[in-house]
# Entry
Amino acid sequence: MKTLRKLVAQRKGATAIEYGLIAALIAVAAIAAMQGLGGSLNNTFTTVSNEMKPS
# Structure
């Protein structure tokens, strides 16, 4: 019976670690996507600003 309890406890710990790793991967992917979007927006606003400047 003790062996079965240890096995269940180990699975809970492993599951928590797996969820933590998944959350970390999602965060890294979100940061990378936002950086790419930020660069694109910066270029767009720079272009619009340059076009609106008086000659």
